[in-house]
Specification:
By secondary structure, this protein is an alpha+beta fold. The chain contains 9 helices and 21 strands. The longest helix has 18 residues.
Length: 423
């Protein structure tokens, strides 16, 4: 009996040590250059209709200001209430109680849905939350792929200067339920400027410029923001319009960080933009002002006027999608190499999306912001080796690692590709 107990303790210790996420260096997996410019020779000139693309993009971008009311039903808008029926852990990794959810749902005030009907604009990079709270919601954090950073209260992060439409306010008046051009959610009221028709005209009627280099910008002693690629500023004469809590201000911006929208889709701009994204830390739903897989692809294409929806599944719409889910691994590679257009093709699997950048040594390569590599752990348990940043890999990153789950590689789970130059 004593021997059996010791044996079980050893097995348990091995199990928990094996299940713990492990950080790995990109150099630890099959090594390919992490310099996007190294692969730019895969690019072939593609003629894009800049005027049509930008016109469509601008229409979508300003679409919240054309609304009279949110078009979702109250039930669709309050979809997050399903979490109240699930086992949810809070940021202290303690289970959320029914009473905790009841208070949140009551404060969400959906009895007042579509009653405020106001137009506004974001004055900061701000989180769009599922519930009107900063608290995090996790599934069981002991399971691989759950816990931080996978906060299910995080819908997305929306950039400063983004038009929104306000449905209603929480009972405590601290939050507004709003819609941007690509996401619904709860935003803190102090992240919004409510705008009138004259202010709307200023934003709509002036030419748009777009940020092409990430980094902090200080506008005055009390006003700074970490501007992200894909942030828009209308230009009025020699200054740019910025939404602040005290109104619309005219500000200066470094001309090296902002360009007229849209950019030409060429080698120079592709390399410069991708160089901004490589090695960026993973940010689920924009958490900590970082990008996840779909915000990387969305922000990369935004300066070119190519509109993408926000999440990975939605990014398979609006353009030509090819379903290759039934193909073998070999057939998938062959199809991607034959049909994919480097830097203008997305590779999709459930919950993840990647940018195809062409081939190296006849191996299809992708650039993507990924959390980790699935591992297979005794006994019958999955784990993760954490990458946690934007990297360039094959479609089977880490397959050569000792504990890698060779039956659940990215390639095995690829569903299809999206050609962004075709409808």
């Amino acid at each position: 009996m004593k021997f059996l107990n010791i044996f079980l303790l050893i097995i348990t210790a091995i199990f928990f040590l094996a299940c713990a996420p492990k950080n790995i260096k990109i150099e630890d997996i099959k090594n390919y250059s992490q310099n996007p410019a190294f692969y730019i020779n895969n690019f072939t000139n593609v003629t894009l209709n800049k005027e049509e693309l930008s016109k469509n993009f601008i229409k979508k971008y300003f679409s919240p200001w054309d609304l009279k009311a949110l078009k979702y039903s109250k039930e669709e808008a309050s979809w997050g209430n399903i979490y109240a029926k699930r086992e949810i852990y809070l940021e202290n990794y303690r289970l959320a109680s029914k009473q905790w959810f009841d208070k949140l749902i009551d404060n969400a005030n959906f009895e007042k849905y579509n009653t405020a009907l106001l137009k506004a604009i974001t004055t900061k990079n701000c989180d769009f939350r599922v519930f009107p709270t900063n608290s995090s919601l996790f599934y069981n954090p002991q399971k691989a792929g759950e816990g931080f950073p996978f906060d299910y209260n995080q819908n997305s992060r929306v950039k400063i200067n983004t038009p929104v439409f306000v449905s209603h306010f929480s009972k405590d008046k601290a939050w507004a339920f709003v819609q941007s051009h690509y996401v619904l959610g709860w935003v803190r009221v102090d992240n919004l400027l409510f705008v009138n028709e004259n202010q709307i005209k200023k934003f709509k009627n002036n030419p748009l410029y777009v940020i092409t280099q990430d980094g902090f910008q200080t506008f005055d002693i009390n006003l700074s923001e970490d501007l992200k690629i894909g942030t828009f500023f209308p230009k009025e004469k020699d200054k740019y319009l910025l939404a602040t809590n005290s109104g619309i201000k005219k500000v200066n911006l470094n001309k090296n960080r902002i360009k007229a929208f849209p950019l030409d889709f060429n080698k120079n701009y592709i390399s410069k933009l991708l160089n901004q994204f490589i090695t960026e830390p993973y940010g689920w739903g924009g958490l900590n002002n970082h990008r996840d897989c779909s915000s990387f692809t969305q922000d990369f294409f935004t300066p070119f006027g190519i509109y993408l929806n926000r999440n990975s599944k939605a990014q398979t719409t609006l353009n030509k999608y090819f379903d290759i889910s039934k193909y073998s691994n070999k057939e998938k590679k062959e199809f991607i190499i034959k049909n994919g257009i480097p830097f203008l093709t997305l590779v999709y699997l459930r919950g993840h999306i990647m940018l195809y950048i062409g081939t190296y040594n006849n191996e299809p390569l992708v650039m993507h912001n990924m959390w980790g590599i699935k591992t297979w752990i005794f006994p019958f348990t999955h784990g993760r080796n954490i990458v946690g940043k934007t990297v360039i890999t094959t479609l089977e990153p880490g397959v050569e690692l000792k504990m890698a789950d060779k039956y659940r590689t990215i390639l095995k789970r690829v569903q299809g590709i999206v050609l962004l130059n075709k409808k």
